[in-house]
Amino acid sequence: MGDSRAESIDTQASESSIFSPPSDYKRVKHLKKFHKKKSGEQLWLIKLPRSLDVSKLKTLPLDLEGREQPIPVEGGNDNDTQYSIGEDKTQRGGQDSSNLGLLVPEENRESLKVSGHGNSLKFDKIFSVRKNAQIPKIDYEKVTVPRSNVVKVEGLRTRHYASGYGPEDEDKQEEAKEKDTSKEEHSEHKSKKHKKHSSDEEHSKKRSKKDKKK
């Protein structure tokens, strides 16, 4: 019983691991026309977005230094359909650091195999065509709303405190405010006294001058 059960499990596992290609894939009848890479040739991968119609491309400008270049599209580029092409720098460093793999023909040219690491076939350069987002011009003077200050309500009391703070901290702040207020009032009172004293002296001087004239 145990052996038959194990065999049935293995059979189910092998059946579930059978590869089924996507529905839109077409079966290749033969691979004899598959181009073999020669010495001095490079294999490039150019990734395109679905929104770009390849038949409308006039040219495909490439900057070998990796800078992005705008792509001219037949009929002109609309404001919402600007494209550019540039080298995918995340895939630099060869096959060992790339997350992309190549399917290459077997020696009998009847089936495909995944190209391995080392001296196997790999992409020399990878380019990506990107759809650029066009940011419209904004008239900030028209869209900016003037700030309105919140009306301050007097007599509010703090019920909730931030972490590390409590009512005693608020009491200290209130005491400091009261001290500052009392100092200001005291200085104002002293200045008033000084002014009054100086005015009294001036008044007495004027009276003494009048008495001398008499």
UniProtKB/TrEMBL annotation:
<feature type="region of interest" description="Disordered">
    <location>
        <begin position="1"/>
        <end position="22"/>
    </location>
</feature>
<protein>
    <recommendedName>
        <fullName>DNA-directed RNA polymerase I subunit RPA34</fullName>
    </recommendedName>
</protein>
<dbReference type="GO" id="GO:0006360">
    <property type="term" value="P:transcription by RNA polymerase I"/>
</dbReference>
<feature type="region of interest" description="Disordered">
    <location>
        <begin position="65"/>
        <end position="106"/>
    </location>
</feature>
<feature type="compositionally biased region" description="Basic and acidic residues">
    <location>
        <begin position="174"/>
        <end position="188"/>
    </location>
</feature>
<dbReference type="Pfam" id="PF08208">
    <property type="entry name" value="RNA_polI_A34"/>
</dbReference>
<feature type="region of interest" description="Disordered">
    <location>
        <begin position="155"/>
        <end position="214"/>
    </location>
</feature>
<dbReference type="InterPro" id="IPR053263">
    <property type="entry name" value="Euk_RPA34_RNAP_subunit"/>
</dbReference>
<dbReference type="InterPro" id="IPR013240">
    <property type="entry name" value="DNA-dir_RNA_pol1_su_RPA34"/>
</dbReference>
<feature type="compositionally biased region" description="Polar residues">
    <location>
        <begin position="9"/>
        <end position="20"/>
    </location>
</feature>
<feature type="compositionally biased region" description="Basic residues">
    <location>
        <begin position="205"/>
        <end position="214"/>
    </location>
</feature>
